[in-house]
Automatic annotation (TrEMBL):
The keyword Repeat does not apply. This is Peptide ABC transporter ATP-binding protein. Signal peptide: none annotated. CDD domains: ABC_NikE_OppD_transporters. One of its GO terms (molecular function) is ATP binding. It comes from Paraglaciecola hydrolytica. Keywords: ATP-binding, Nucleotide-binding, Transport. One of its GO terms (biological process) is transmembrane transport. Residues 5-251 form the ABC transporter domain.
Amino acid sequence: MTDLINVENLTFVNRRKKARLFSSAKNFELGPINFSLKAGETLAIVGANGSGKSLLAKLLVGLEKPASGHISLNGDVLTKFNQRQRCFNVRMIFQNSNESLNPGITLGGILDEPLRLNTDLNLLQRAAKIEQTLQQVGLMPEHQFFYRHMLSDGQRQRVALARALILNPQVLVADEPFAALDPSVRSQIVNLLMNIQRDLGLGFIFISHNLGIVRHISDKIIVMKGGKIIEAGKTEVIFNWPKEEYTQKLVHTHQALINRQVT
């Protein structure tokens, strides 16, 4: 099967303009990053805060420009000349759904904006697409008339997912999408995502600290530390036979937490 997305030798340098108090100015260097993803696969990216996970997500969706390397989608290299292709096909679910939704616009308005700006659909066609997408994520058509403050945390996350899906993408990039949800709602959203992925054949790139969810939904894992990939492989291989000391610590900490919960 052909790779859906392919990342080759991707690098980025975040240059600090000023030194912080009691510390010198240091550049953060990401990469080189290499990985591939097929349709229907889930890749999890794990690592401590500051390892470069969220920065990599921004590079994938075009919010940051790499210093070198490239990202290919269906074999075509994504550049500034085909940003429209990236906009349609690589969509992001942000970490905090509450902050990413405009409180002064109805949900219908939030979902209509990407359709209005990026498609030739007329008003009736856009309205039909909005209703279809709301139902796809487990909401009712009537929710299009709601505002952000009228929704629960779980419903807000469903709206964030709907906004990511509205342009029929091929890849979803999710940066800690479940961090603010309580366990029962989290389970519902995880199952929803897995069902949507199965139905649509989406590629899913999932950034998380929650290794329980990572093990449950991912096909393969990248472990990052200090802007570098220190280990990568199939999920069960990483969990059962981690090679790097850092990965071993992550897995052992996760297993110890599970053991405490069981006892």
